[in-house]
Each structure stands twice: as structure tokens, then as C-alpha cells.
Amino acid sequence: MIARIVKAVGGQYQLDATNGFRGIAAARGIFRLDGITPTPGDLVVYESSGDPDVPWVISEILPRRNYIIRPALANLDRLLITAAATEPAPDFFLIDKLITVCLVNNIEPILIITKNDQATAEPQIFCEVYDRTNLKIIFTSIDDKKSHIEIRGLLPEQVVSFAGQSGVGKSTLLNQLFGDEMMETGGISDKIGRGRHTTRHVELFSYAGGYLADTPGFSTLELIDLGITSETIEQGYPEIAAVSDQCRFSGCRHLGDLGCAVTEQLIHPDRLERYRMFRRQLDQIKPYESTAQQTNNRTRRYNKKKRR
Ligand SMILES: Nc1nc2c(ncn2[C@@H]2O[C@H](COP(=O)(O)OP(=O)(O)OP(=O)(O)O)[C@@H](O)[C@H]2O)c(=O)[nH]1
Ligand SMILES: [Mg+2]
Ligand SMILES: [Zn+2]
């Protein structure tokens, strides 16, 4: 029996199958040994547990099409990278990182720009920065029915998720797409800048043979933690990839080196600058260094310095 994990909270998993099955499952300890965690979006094999409180147990996770740790999701087809045309101020570092994560993992990134109904909305900056990527950009707001129809058209038979900062309006838009209050929403009210009804868990909602996931907002994301390396980061930049074979030297890092074909006519200067910053950071990390090894090496270097 195969179902999809639509929610994971406290070691319990809500399962959903296209035949109408819904149930709560625990996971076999064996996954911990393998170092993999059942994740929303996973297709799993489940069987009866004999426990009336948690009647099912996940015995196997089917091979994943892809997997990202933030937001924690498996088997994504599309990611709705959501930003506001007003508040909160857009974090272009975050947007660029999310685009890269998508393009490296065979997920289609789509930019969703919310709150265009507000008088202070500044949507044109997104066109300026992202036009040359050729990614789809959809401008929306509460009650903009035309944009909702366009976004709904992206969902049938697909696993789609929202991603973006807290307060940009992901849950609000999900409710509008479903025409129902699936998620609570709220303003940015408390001290740490989180919404009053800020989303706490990833949750997939079934829609037209596919799923749409709401996810908690976040602002920090490290490319290295998402498996992006100095070899793969270029895939996140269609503007660079289109001309990189015209650079004079193969293996050009596009850091402004002699003979580099990447110019500010081909890519927005701010986006190029962010690429270069990410690239320099990733170039510092040797590919074989795992996060744990990095910590160890950092400690060793630190100790050595102290002994001198
Ligand atoms: N004017 C206007 N306000 C909006 C729009 N979309 C969302 N909001 C408001 O923005 C606030 C935050 O919306 P949420 O949907 O809770 O934001 P979120 O992205 O789900 O936030 P997290 O769950 O914390 O990640 C709410 O007060 C919404 O009413 C919009 O298109 N226009
Ligand atoms: Mg939310
Ligand atoms: Zn180059």
C-alpha cells in the first residue's frame, strides 16, 4: 500500500492516497540508521501497526525525484518562490538561492509577487532583476482573480509548494486558490517580525490530482546545506549558463576574469554581484568536506592557530 506524506509533526506522519485513504503513521527505526527522515512529499509504503492510536507504520520510502531541506520537502515539481511588492522588503539573496536550489534539483521555479493591491507596491524591480532569467513571474494580490486562475493552472497532477519569507502572504494565497480557509493567516505583529498566525509546519493539500504545500516562512538559507557546490551554482543562473561556453577559458568562474563572456547586459548587475559572492563562498569549501568535517577542520585550524 502506497501513500504520500502530507504532514510530519513530532514523529507522526499524516498519509494521503489518491484512492481516498487518509491515516496517521509512525516510522520504522530503520530510517534513522540510514540517515534519512520521512519528509512531506515522500511516497511511502505503509502497513498496519496494530496500535489503535497510530494505526499505520511506514516501512519504506520510495526513491525520491528530489529532496530539499528548506522548506523540508520531497518530490517537488514546482516551487512558488513568493515575495511581496511591499512589506516585508524582498530578500533578493533568498530569492536567488531558492532559484538555484530549484534549477539544480530539477524543480521549476516560479516567482509569485504578492500585495500588488497596495499603493506602495513596487513590482517593477522584480521585472528588472529577473526578466533575463526567463522564469515565469506572476503578480498577484487578494481578490486578483485573474492571477489566481493562472496560478491554479500550475497545480493539476503536480507537487507544488510555496517558499518565502514570513508574512509575504503564502497562506493567504493558498486560501484564495482553494476558495476556503485551509490555513490561518495573520499580520506581522510581534517583536520578532513573525505573523500572528505564522505557519509552523509544512502541509500538503490535495488539489486536482496534485498537491499544494504551505510552508513556514524563513529568511536564512545556506546554499551548502542544500547541497549546492561551486560546480553546480552556475546552473542557478540561466543568464550565465547561456554564454559560459563563450568565455575564453574553460572553467571560467565568471568573477570578472579576463575573457569572461558574462556582461551586465546579459544579467542584472545586482544578481551578478550576488552570484559572485555565493561563488567565492562556495569556492572556499572543498567538495569532499561534509558539514561535520568542516566543523572539525575549523576546530583543528583554530587549535593550531592558538598553539602558535
Ligand atoms: N494588502 C494585501 N495584504 C496581503 C496580501 N497577501 C497577504 N496579505 C497580508 O499579509 C499578512 C501575512 O499573510 P500570511 O498569508 O499569513 O503570510 P505567510 O507568508 O503565510 O506568513 P508565514 O506563515 O509566517 O510564513 C496578512 O495580514 C495578510 O492579510 C495581499 O495580496 N495584499
Ligand atoms: Mg503562512
Ligand atoms: Zn566567464
What key phrases describe this protein's structure?
Ribonucleotide Reductase Protein R1, domain 1, binds guanosine-5'-triphosphate, 25% helix, binds zinc ion, globular, OB fold (Dihydrolipoamide Acetyltransferase, E2P), binds magnesium ion, 8 helices, 308 residues, Rossmann fold, six-stranded mixed beta sheet
How does this structure look, described?
This protein has helices at 30-34, 92-104, 124-130, 145-152, 170-178, 238-241, 269-283, 291-307, and strands spanning 2-9, 12-16, 22-27, 43-48, 56-61, 67-69, 72-74, 78-84, 108-114, 136-139, 159-164, 203-207, 210-214. It is α/β, with parallel strands linked by helices and 308 residues long. The chain has a six-stranded mixed sheet with strand order 10-9-8-11-13-12, sandwiched between helices. A five-stranded mixed β-barrel has the order 1-2-3-5-4. The longest helix is centred in the last third of the chain and has 17 residues, at 291-307. Bound molecules: guanosine-5'-triphosphate, magnesium ion and zinc ion. Magnesium ion (MG) is lined by residues 170-171, 183, 198-199, 214. Magnesium ion binds at residues 170-171, 183, 198-199, 214.
Can you summarize this structure?
By secondary structure, the protein is of the alpha/beta class.
Structural class: alpha/beta
The ordered H/E elements are EEEHEEEEEHEHEHEHEEHHH
Major sheet attributes: 6 strands, mixed
Strand order of the largest sheet: 10-9-8-11-13-12
CATH class membership of the largest domain: Alpha Beta
Q: What is the CA-CA span between the terminal residues?
A: 62 Å
Low-pLDDT stretches are: none
Examine the coordinates and then state which fold CATH places here, giving the name of the CATH topology of the largest domain.
Rossmann fold
* Portion of residues within helices: 25-40%
